[in-house]
Amino acid sequence: MAIVAPPRVFVARLAGVQVFDPNGDPVGRIRDVVVLLRLGAQQPRVLGLVVEVPPRRPIFIPMTRVTSIEAGAVVVTGAVNLRRFARRAAETLVLGELLDRNVVLIETGETVTVTDVAMEQTRTRDWYLTKVAVRRGRGRMRRRGEIQVVDWSAVRGLSLPETSQGAASLLAAFDQLRPADLAGVIHDLSEKRRAEVAAALDDERLADVLEELPEEEQVAILATLEGRRAADVLEAMGPDDAADLLAELPPDEAERLLSLMDPEEAEPVRRLLTYSENTAGGLMTTEPVILPPSATVAEALARVRNPDLTPATASQVYVCRPPTETPTGRYLGIAHLQRLLREPPGTLVSAVVDTDIAPLPPSAPLPEVARYLATYNLVAIPVVDDDDRLLGAVTVDDVLDHLLPEGWRDEAGSDDVADAERQPGDRAS
Predict the structure, then answer these.
(1) Are strands 290-291 and 316-320 parallel, antiparallel or unpaired?
(2) CA–CA distance, 130 with 249 (Å, rounded to integer)
(3) What is the pLDDT of residue 408?
(4) Is CB count within 10 Å lower at the N or C end of the chain?
(5) For 247-299, how does the pLDDT look when each residue is reduced to its tens digit (9 = 90+)?
(6) Are 321 and 329 in contact (CB under 8 A)?
(7) For residue 225, what pLDDT is reported?
(8) b/e map of 4-14 (b: 16 or more CB within 10 Å)?
(9) Which residues pair with 393 in a beta bridge?
């Protein structure tokens, strides 16, 4: 039975589209389309979809299982193979590898940039890439950035290795993704494409994405950045994440990058690097929400509304004597978010502090930190020094990062199989 679909589907518009089973239950979201490039001007055959299923696992669904492609929804049928997708050598990812390529219009010899690719279903029910949307440069009677849709056979260079490829169209297709999800997309790209995507991202976005990638990929991407840019990205990261990344580098390289950072940004990172990795000091963030005892509940609530804060960081306000930058003046206690929500806005935070929860020293080992959070049902715990100065706070997400087995972001496990071990039915022939 032919797929219910528009006559032509542009692949970039499928990015992030929800995939459903025949009962209407969600399966995952489309992350890419897998094709087999062929010699000469032959149209590439579409093999299937890369679909991300919870928790952040990319799987392959053959086009033979796709029954409907509509605006905002794709429906698939049959059993879904949950083995982690791994691209084979002969396969190409449309979004990851074809977008932003520089190609040549055969008729005019003009160099243009690919912004999208369209696929169509034939009478034999197979799907092929048939059209290419390209952005043309400035010319007589033509506006700069004009988009033109041409036949696949009308361009040359899509099957050749690309030495210098941008990433604007790829990033536009995934513009609405959360950093963790964009990290999943980048993780499945080649090293070359990762570097190109990193070059195209702004510092803040790249910093957020790096925090979600495995450490070896963080190091590899950072190595592709010019020194000043690498320092800017480290400054945009949380001090604890920047310290974790720098700890993976050779000491002389870490020191070089620290020297390029703004001294005020580098100072807390240097301090964190003095602590052992699996201690409260090595786990903590130096930027929790801190207020003096004279602050009001209204001020505290305004601070925790900051969308850049993680839920764990925003759950508690630490009340300390000035200065309120770590290391602070004397630590007084915690003002819990739930308590703040129950108090009049003009109430002083010093009147609602919880002094029953003892803070941890920076030397507390990881198991002790985990037990403390579990015992008192906390999502964060303050860390103070011998002089009762607040140094930072350890959040439950940082503890989980260190308790989970190495490589957990890759979901390495017994159900993952090597490419050579994949069942023959996993790909359309």
Answers:
(1) parallel
(2) 46
(3) 62
(4) N
(5) 999 999 999 999 999 999 999 999 999 999 899 999 999 999 999 999 999 99
(6) yes
(7) 95
(8) ebeeebebbeb
(9) 285, 382
